[in-house]
Amino acid sequence: MTGGAVGVGFIGTGMISDTYLQNLTSFPDIRVVILGDIDTARAAAQAATHGIPESGTPDDVLAHPDVELVVNLTIPAAHVPVSLSAIAAGKHVWSEKPIGVERAAARELLAQADAAGLRVGIAPDTVLGPGLQTARRAIARGDIGTPLSAQTSMQYIGPDIFHPNPEFLFARGAGPLIDMGPYYISALVSVFGPVARVAAVGGRGRETRTVQVGERAGTEFPVEVPTLVQAIAQFEQGATSQSVFSFDSPLARTGVVEITGTEGTMVIPDPNTFGGEVRITRAPTRATAGSEPAWEVVAPVGIEAGRGLGVLDMARAIRAGVPHIATGELGYHVFDTLLSLEEAVSSGAFVEVQSTVGEIPLVPEDRDPFAATL
């Protein structure tokens, strides 16, 4: 393929595929040609729902001549094997987060893609949305002075209250840290640059959980990972952050990202979304001390879309021969950081993060996902 819309195939058609399909089928620069799943009936149902011409098995997706880029929406334990199969078939691959469940396999994936001259992209692509992009531009302008620190919170009672098959979200490669952490750590890395070292404490509120919805309601399953992590990170450029990641909190407090600089504090929109309001408050004066903070709203710049924006960015970058933004290297560094936090929970000591990542480019302000550009 040398021009025109990029042909895309899906492997994995579970819950998250709906939002990807709703968006990708609305982007003129993307052509979804086939959906694949080990449950071929589920793939066929999704194809019928979203008007996709073909469906079948994962192998059917890999063999399809019009598929240039595979969207990998499998469970975390299958991310690397499926992504490797896409690379072996000569396809670029976009994978849901995390990149994998262990470092060595994730590094091997990136090495094989590089050797084959193919691209890997890793969710989340929320970092490409107008919310975080507007915040980054405001910080770059100096709206809060020099950014010094951040505070984030992602806490609620857990996904077993709504997911009909929640076991994988409490298994290795998930939990609140590695399932939800990528949104928050990706946002922080976008603002502060790569992480140098981390420390954390945490544990499990319960050793077992119970499926609460769907046909399997009442089924008990084990919890394999920490479900509460309180984390500290120090970034290479000197800034620090503190974060809470919890599936054990009856009080829900999610989407909290506050960046404090020398001249003000910025509230960034929920990093699990693409839009939202950016707000800034300044240090109080003697006259205003003790009063409610005054807020400045930074008008968002850019067209809001949704999940699949990273696939679109990859597709356009492939055609243009330029780097895409949510790279495998960024996804690996975020994953490496999260695993380091998990290890810090076990050891109680600071853990040096071994990987790094280059500067993350901004999205052009005039980028229109719904324009035909290829």
UniProtKB/TrEMBL annotation:
Key word Oxidoreductase present: yes
Residue stretches making up the GFO/IDH/MocA-like oxidoreductase domain: 133-266
Keyword Oxidoreductase: yes
Residue ranges constituting the Gfo/Idh/MocA-like oxidoreductase N-terminal domain according to the UniProt record: 7-121
Keywords: NAD, Oxidoreductase
Pfam families given in the database record: GFO_IDH_MocA, GFO_IDH_MocA_C3
Protein name: Gfo/Idh/MocA family oxidoreductase
Organism, scientific name: Microbacterium panaciterrae
